[in-house]
Design goal:
The structure is a single chain. The protein is of the alpha/beta class. The chain has one domain: Alkaline Phosphatase, subunit A. Helices cover 31% and strands 16% of the residues. It contains 15 helices and 19 strands. A hairpin with a 3-residue loop joins strand 17 and strand 18. The longest helix has 31 residues. The N terminus is likely disordered.
Length: 501
């Protein structure tokens, strides 16, 4: 008889040998079982989508060392920063409509803030998803919205949700001081922008929560806590309001900047040889707010007043950066950052005196280029920016690819998931943008814009390799470049301007 200790060793060795002699068929069955069992699959990624109103690429991450945007800069250092992201329309409603639906404008009549209401108005759920949020909902995601995602700041159009089939939940702040669009436009006391007219900014010794964005950040934090307690994947969209006019922010954000060192626009005058049809009077800024000076259409403001307004815009940008930081901190504290796709998107740019314009609504780069940051779990080369050309129209198919969802047949955007995975991949050959009687086309090197109201045509062309600030229109001196680019513009026009044949 074996000694007790030797017997135990023998039994242990026999057990190990059994482990190593499992039949191949049994191993295959185990592998197939884990594949067929949904609970054994890797969890689907959550999506946190953050829209920021009027946020041009004005962050430290874009190389502007005078900006105080530590939270968005930190995110960019772990994400893919897009240096050449362009919107389809330089105004809130239509820009968001094209982004959410992945569909382009059909005509000049589509340039209205009520575009989504017109496109999506239906008492019956459509066969095709109304937005990519709706598409995620249909694919098993719990969808939560808050703030300005579509055009209306409270998410309501004609008494119903503007995106009526997209949301499982749409959260609202309990504070009743602001209503409807005044969430975007109001001052701390809830009074709107035009009754009576006030300055286009506000600096008071207030807390973050004395403005809608501060309350919105708190709402998002609580929403993330609720989602963390659920096993359902979520799609959460948060729409921050600043730095939309008026540039309101607590005084502490103003104190982050020394006004005397704030840079003025590098291109404060209209481009040489440009038709005034491409300029505008900045009617929102000068018409709806109390301003001691008037500018627009070739008329500059004094440097002192221009610097004060820019200071206000910077403060509002730092304010919203802090709110984004609260949301991202909560995401990390809950451990949700390990399996969440994060997108930060600005709905268009904004002129801070560039070309004498104070606003959007132009066919220049300042109005059409905006912030875009995308982060995915375990992404390649995080923190490396890309110069690949992309459009807001492309966000829908890109999110489908990143979340491994099927793409619907009716979307017109092109996925840029390849750029998320590889910053050196190729982007688009061209991006088209629209504003009333004008079309603007961005290529990797040029911007070509055409204004045609059916009576006369004006063209402007800029070579961004030597003139990134678009200071000199070279359409007349370089007709060969216009001739080279025009066929692409005509092809992409798709009858938006019927004068193109």
């Amino acid at each position: 008889m074996l000694p007790a200790r030797l017997k135990l060793i023998t039994i242990a060795l026999a057990s190990l040998l059994c482990l190593w002699t499992v039949p191949a068929s049994a191993l295959d069955a185990a592998a197939n079982a884990s594949t067929d069992n949904p609970s054994a699959e890797a969890p689907r990624p959550n999506v946190l989508f953050i829209a920021i109103d009027d946020l041009r690429p004005q962050l430290g991450a874009y190389g502007l060392d005078y900006m105080v945007t530590p939270n968005l800069d930190q995110l960019a250092s772990q994400s893919r920063l897009f240096r050449k992201h362009y919107v389809q329309v330089p105004t809130c409603g239509p820009s968001r409509a094209t982004m959410l639906t992945g569909k382009n404008l059909h005509s000049k009549e589509d340039i209205t803030h009520q575009l989504l209401g017109k496109w999506l108005a239906s008492d019956k759920e459509p066969d095709s998803p109304e937005t990519f949020i709706h598409h995620f909902k249909r694919n098993g995601y719990h969808t939560v919205g808050m703030g300005k995602i579509s055009h209306n700041a409270d998410g309501v159009h004609d008494g119903a949700l503007e995106l009526r089939y997209s949301w499982d939940q749409f959260l609202r702040c309990s504070n009743q001081l602001w209503r409807g669009q005044e969430l975007s436009h109001a001052y701390a006391d809830g009074v709107g922008r035009s009754d009576p007219k006030r300055p286009p900014f506000e600096r008071l010794d207030l807390s973050d929560e004395d403005y809608p964005d501060g309350q919105l950040a708190n709402l998002a934090v609580e929403g993330l806590k609720q989602r963390a307690a659920s096993e359902e994947p979520f799609f959460m969209a948060i729409g921050f309001f600043k730095p939309h006019l008026p540039f309101c922010a607590p005084r502490k954000y103003w104190k982050m900047y020394d006004r005397e060192t704030i840079p003025l626009s590098p291109n404060p005058d209209p481009p040489a040889d440009v038709d005034q049809a491409f300029l505008h009077s900045s009617s929102e800024f000068f018409g709806q707010y109390l301003s001691p000076e008037k500018g627009g259409v070739g008329k500059r403001l004094s440097d002192d007043y221009a610097r004060e307004v820019i200071h206000a815009n910077f403060a509002a940008t730092s304010f919203v950066d802090a709110q984004v930081g609260k949301v991202l901190d909560q995401l990390k504290q809950l451990g949700l950052d390990k399996n969440t796709i994060i997108v930060v998107w600005g709905d268009h740019g904004w002129h801070l005196g560039d070309h004498t314009i104070w606003g959007k609504h132009s066919m220049f780069d300042r109005s059409l280029r905006s912030t875009l940051i995308v982060q995915t779990p375990d992404m390649n080369s995080p923190g490396v920016a890309t110069d690949g050309l992309v459009a807001s129209l492309d966000i829908y198919p890109t999110l489908c690819d990143l979340a491994s969802l099927p793409k619907t047949d009716d979307i017109q955007g092109e996925s840029f998931a390849r750029l998320v995975n590889d910053p050196n991949a190729n982007g688009r050959d061209a991006v088209l943008s629209y504003w009333r009687d004008a079309i603007s086309m961005k290529t990797p090197h040029y911007r070509l814009a055409v204004h045609d109201d059916g009576k006369r045509r004006s063209i402007m062309l800029f070579d961004h390799r030597v003139d990134p600030n678009e200071t000199t229109n070279i359409a007349v001196t370089h007709p060969e470049v216009v001739a080279q680019l025009m066929p692409t513009l005509k092809r992409l026009n798709d009858d938006y301007l019927p004068v193109f044949e």
